[in-house]
TrEMBL record:
Gene3D superfamilies, alphabetized: Leucine Aminopeptidase, subunit E, domain 1 (3.40.220.10)
Species: Streptosporangium brasiliense
Protein name: O-acetyl-ADP-ribose deacetylase (Regulator of RNase III)
Domain Macro: residue ranges: 1-168
Coiled-coil region list: none
C-alpha cells in the first residue's frame, strides 16, 4: 500500500472513497462533515437519513464506519466514521485507531482501491495533531487491506508537517 500526504481539501480528491469525520447523528456538522455535505449535495444526507432509520436509530457508534454514495463529489463513495472526542482523563486512542481500521474494512467491502482520509478527531473533537497523526499512520500501516493508496488530506501546513514528521 502506498501512503501519500497532501495538503488540501478532501472534497476535491479524485479517489474511490473519501472518509468523513462525521458525528454519530450522521446528519451533518461542521468541519470536514459540513464541507462534504455542502459540496456533495443533498443525496448524501438522504442516504445518511435512510441509514439512521434502518440501522442506527441511536446513532453510529464511535469507532465504526458506514458508506454512502458521494453525490456530486469526484469520489464514488463517502465512508462516514465517528471519531472520539479527545479526553485528558481517558485514553481513547483505540477508538481513533478503530476509525481508520473500520473505514479501510468498509473500503474493502466496496472494492475501493484509493481512499482519502482527513485527520480524524483533530478539529472540533480536539485531538492533538501530532498524536492524531501518529495513530493514523501506525494504524493504516498495520492494516490488512486491499486498498492500494491511502491519501491523507491535511487542511493546513501545520497538519501536513505533523504527518510528515510522523511518517519519518
Ligand atoms: P472532528 O470533529 O473529527 O475533529 P473536524 O472536521 O472538525 O472533525 O476536523 C478534522 C480535521 O479535518 C481537522 O484537522 C480540520 O482542520 C480538517 N479539515 C476541515 N475541513 C477540511 C477539508 N475540507 N478537507 C480536509 N480536512 C479538513
Amino acid at each position: 500500500m502506498e501512503i501519500r500526504l497532501v495538503q488540501g481539501d478532501i472534497t476535491e480528491q479524485d479517489v474511490d472513497a473519501v472518509v468523513n469525520a462525521a458525528n454519530s447523528s450522521l446528519l451533518g456538522g461542521g468541519g470536514v462533515d459540513g464541507a462534504i455535505h455542502r459540496r456533495g449535495g443533498p443525496e448524501i444526507l438522504q442516504e445518511c437519513r435512510a441509514l439512521r432509520a434502518s440501522h442506527y436509530g441511536a446513532g453510529l457508534p464511535t469507532g465504526q464506519a458506514v458508506a454512502t454514495t458521494a453525490g456530486r463529489l469526484p469520489a464514488r463513495w463517502v465512508i462516514h466514521t465517528v471519531g472520539p472526542v479527545h479526553s485528558a482523563a481517558e485514553d481513547r486512542s483505540e477508538l481513533l485507531a478503530s476509525c481508520y481500521r473500520e473505514s479501510l474494512r468498509v473500503a474493502d467491502e466496496l472494492g475501493a482501491a484509493t481512499v482519502a482520509f482527513p485527520a480524524i478527531s483533530t478539529g472540533i473533537y480536539g485531538w492533538p495533531m501530532d498524536d492524531g497523526a501518529r495513530i493514523a499512520l501506525s494504524t493504516v500501516r498495520r492494516a490488512s487491506t486491499s486498498v492500494v493508496e491511502v491519501r491523507f488530506v491535511l487542511f493546513d501546513a501545520a497538519a501536513h508537517a505533523a504527518f510528515e514528521r510522523s511518517l519519518g
